[in-house]
């Protein structure tokens, strides 16, 4: 069989373009496309299989197989050669399909007389849409040129799908018009309805076929030159990066200057693609290869490839980041991931956020909590399925996202939001009342903060102070280390806005999942138990000293509360406290007004500190239990790991025994104790902690109302008696009995 020439490839692509422009529904276009491909490649069969759900492919059009099999034949991802192509994202080329591993015979298609098989994926930048297959009676393998040509055709099919060419009967590629549900994880509770605003909007290629290869080559050459200049400027201006970081940027620049990358795109243009379609074809091809590799370094390079390709596509198409598109009045931000500074730029204008990636302790989650924005993370593939302006519902309580929801779903969701709004109104009436239980016990409810934007909630929520001010956010949202004067001014504004209410400043808690943009990343096998928080501060003493100086200056004659994070050994606390006292003396010697008093505390986040000597407890002015980290270390369950973190319950008897032991040790040494973390803001957990003796709970502002409402109708003494009885009886998890007692079932 003769090899296909470049002119034949362009001829076929023009036919496909004409098919796109012709009137008719999606099925008619699919039928026409299979006919043109079979005719051009001189094969007896051409078939298009499309996804009808994430795990199932359906035969949607064919030339050469039995027509009655269309929309009847289906395969799972692990079935047949077609399923294998879809799963791996790689072509299969064989002269004897029935002899291939995993072959599945489908008698309804009549394909048994066509042993030769070539299947290539229909995909668009990581989004798998289906499989394009050609088959012949002649037992032979297809040539490299034929494989390459069919991949080019598949690329154009993917772009045609993006343009809506296959809407109508049998058009599984019309996913951008269908209702979809994404099951992610809760990043921040709350519910929101709005319209999609893509942080990185999809580049839509309206001209996948190029008529003039020379013109398309020239466009590509000019765009690549602009890209390389942009990358050079970015690398040269990154004067804060050194060591490994500098090496990463240099590797990024080398990739942008890759001759092989440019040559492959030029070859695609010669076969008939436009410049932008050629860029996207190579992006999809490389992504498929890199996603399947086990080499973490190569997988990391996928991010470089995506970023460079997207930059090049924006240059070619002129489609900048949301250029010229007005943000909807009710925006729900949708992104793969986002940094804290970028999220802060959007601010409170957002109704909600949905991320494909992220983690429960990531910077974006911290900022979303500070802004009280519902957030869902791990919503896989949503950036591929969402378009700007799509209606969307975000349920941060359950981790569900409804994209383009049906009206019945939207109506039920609005009822839920209305009920939540009504509940918040009832909580507002409790704002100025104490959180006093029926037994007479009063619990002080504090709020967590980290931004100036949090401070208005101090009065509105009824919080009695800031039990935790996260100082690392000011470091995370900048491209350089903040100056001492900048920090002092910020801390001063925080204390001014708090008026007479206390603010407990936690010193810099970085490392693990919180890596500063200008800080050299340390490759650790287990970052959560590695070089982080107080360990960083005691080794990088200059930064901690500067932060302590800023806090002292900001106090200006007021009482200062400083808390050191992640103390695992009492000597770490003694050393950090000594550093604070030394800075007090230094600031006094320089003529700065000292605080009226300094209260120094430790955050108890490791089980080891619960067993520290009595002298340690007596040395602390206060202790705050960091519930999130303490729980993950107690259960040896990484809180960033969705597979294990939800298996372990705060209301299990062993964990409650640990909490009560800490309460008793602090009571014996007369040390004020608080509990800070997500569990403090959950009503059932909050009531249980209060029953065990916690008298200060610190939580996000929105949780104060629900927690206070439950505490005011609960007899904590009776709840404590129930807990003691159940533990004595050997009950492992107390959640069911506590929920029944509190009327939460």
Description:
With 745 residues, the chain is α/β, with parallel strands linked by helices. It has four domains: 6-177, Beta-Lactamase, CATH 3.30.450; 180-201 and 323-421, Glucose Oxidase, domain 1 (3-Layer(bba) Sandwich), CATH 3.50.30.10; 213-317, Enzyme I, Chain A, domain 2 (Orthogonal Bundle); 429-742, TIM Barrel (Alpha-Beta Barrel), CATH 3.20.20. It has 28 helices and 23 strands. α7 (259-270) crosses α8. The longest helix has 25 residues, at 213-237. The chain is elongated and about 90 Å long. The N and C termini lie far apart (72 Å). The model is unreliable at 1-6, 169-175 and 238-248 (pLDDT under 50).
Summarize the structure.
With about 750 residues, the protein is α/β, with parallel strands linked by helices. It has 28 helices and 23 strands. It folds into four domains: about 5-175, Beta-Lactamase (2-Layer Sandwich), CATH 3.30.450; about 180-200 and about 325-420, Glucose Oxidase, domain 1, CATH 3.50.30.10; about 215-315, PtsI, HPr-binding domain (Enzyme I, Chain A, domain 2, Orthogonal Bundle); about 430-740, TIM Barrel, CATH 3.20.20.60.
């Amino acid at each position: 069989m003769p090899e296909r020439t470049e002119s034949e490839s362009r001829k076929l692509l023009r036919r496909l373009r004409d098919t796109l422009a012709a009137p008719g529904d999606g099925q008619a276009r699919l039928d026409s496309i299979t006919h043109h491909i079979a005719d051009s490649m001189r094969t007896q069969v051409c078939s298009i299989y499309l996804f009808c759900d994430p795990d199932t492919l359906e035969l949607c059009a064919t030339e050469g197989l039995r027509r009655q099999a269309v929309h009847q034949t289906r395969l799972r991802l692990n079935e047949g050669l077609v399923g294998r192509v879809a799963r791996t994202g790689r072509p299969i080329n064989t002269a004897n399909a029935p002899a291939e591993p995993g072959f599945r015979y489908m008698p309804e298609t009549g394909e048994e007389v066509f042993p030769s098989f070539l299947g290539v994926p229909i995909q668009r930048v990581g989004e798998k849409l289906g499989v394009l297959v050609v088959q012949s009676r002649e037992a032979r393998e297809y040539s490299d040129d034929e494989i390459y040509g069919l991949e080019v055709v598949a690329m154009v099919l993917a772009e045609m799908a993006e343009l809506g060419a296959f809407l109508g009967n049998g058009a599984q590629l019309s996913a951008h018009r269908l209702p979809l549900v994404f099951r992610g994880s809760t990043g921040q509770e709350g519910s929101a309805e709005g319209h999609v605003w893509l942080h990185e909007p999809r580049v839509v290629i309206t001209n996948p076929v190029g008529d003039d290869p020379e013109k398309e080559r020239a466009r590509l050459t000019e765009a690549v030159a602009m890209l390389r200049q942009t990358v050079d400027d970015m690398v040269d201006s990154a004067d804060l990066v050194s060591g490994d970081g500098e090496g990463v940027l240099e590797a990024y620049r080398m990739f942008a200057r890759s001759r092989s990358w440019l040559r492959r795109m030029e070859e695609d243009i010669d076969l008939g693609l436009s410049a932008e379609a050629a860029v996207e074809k190579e992006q999809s091809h490389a992504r498929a290869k890199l996603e399947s590799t086990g080499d973490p370094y190569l997988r990391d390079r996928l991010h470089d490839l995506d970023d460079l390709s997207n930059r090049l596509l924006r240059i070619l198409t002129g489609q900048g980041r949301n250029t010229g598109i007005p943000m909807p009045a009710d925006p729900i931000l949708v992104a793969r991931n986002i940094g804290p500074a970028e999220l802060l730029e959007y601010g409170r204008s957002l109704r909600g956020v949905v991320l494909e990636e992220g983690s429960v302790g990531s910077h974006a989650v911290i900022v979303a909590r500070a802004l009280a924005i519902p957030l869902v993370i791990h919503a896989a593939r949503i950036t591929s399925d969402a378009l700007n302006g799509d209606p969307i519902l975000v349920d941060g309580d359950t981790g569900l996202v409804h994209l383009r929801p049906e009206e019945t779903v939207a109506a039920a969701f609005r009822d839920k939001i209305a009920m939540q709004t009504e509940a918040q109104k009832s909580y507002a009436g409790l704002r100025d009342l104490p959180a006093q239980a029926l037994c007479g016990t009063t619990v002080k409810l504090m709020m967590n903060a980290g931004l100036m934007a949090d401070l208005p909630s101090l009065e509105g929520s009824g919080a009695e102070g800031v039990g935790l001010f996260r100082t690392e956010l000011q470091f995370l949202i900048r491209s350089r280390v903040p100056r001492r004067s900048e920090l002092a001014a910020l801390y001063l504004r925080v204390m001014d806005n708090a008026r007479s209410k206390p603010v407990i400043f936690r010193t810099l808690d970085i490392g693990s999942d919180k890596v500063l943009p200008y800080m050299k990343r340390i490759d650790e096998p287990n970052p959560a138990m590695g070089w982080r928080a107080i360990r960083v501060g005691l080794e990088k003493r200059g930064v901690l000293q500067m932060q302590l100086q800023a806090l002292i200056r900001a106090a200006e004659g007021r009482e200062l509360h400083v808390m050191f994070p992640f103390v695992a050994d009492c000597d770490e606390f003694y050393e950090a406290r000594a550093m604070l006292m030394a800075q007090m003396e230094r600031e006094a010697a320089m003529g700065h007004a000292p605080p009226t008093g300094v209260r120094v505390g430790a955050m108890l986040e490791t089980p080891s500190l619960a067993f520290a000597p009595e002298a340690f407890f007596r040395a602390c002015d206060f202790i705050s239990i960091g519930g999130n980290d303490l729980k993950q270390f107690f259960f040896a369950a990484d809180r960033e790991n969705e597979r294990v973190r939800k298996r372990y319950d705060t209301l299990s008897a062993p964990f409650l025994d640990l909490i009560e032991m800490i309460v008793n040790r602090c009571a014996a040494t007369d040390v004020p104790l608080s509990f800070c973390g997500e569990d403090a803001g959950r009503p059932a957990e909050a009531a249980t902690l209060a029953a065990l003796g916690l008298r200060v709970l610190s939580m996000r502002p929105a949780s104060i109302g629900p927690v206070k409402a439950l505490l005011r109708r609960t007899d904590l003494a009776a709840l404590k008696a129930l807990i003691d009885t159940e533990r004595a009886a050997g009950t492992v998890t107390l959640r069911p009995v506590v929920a029944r007692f509190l009327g939460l079932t």
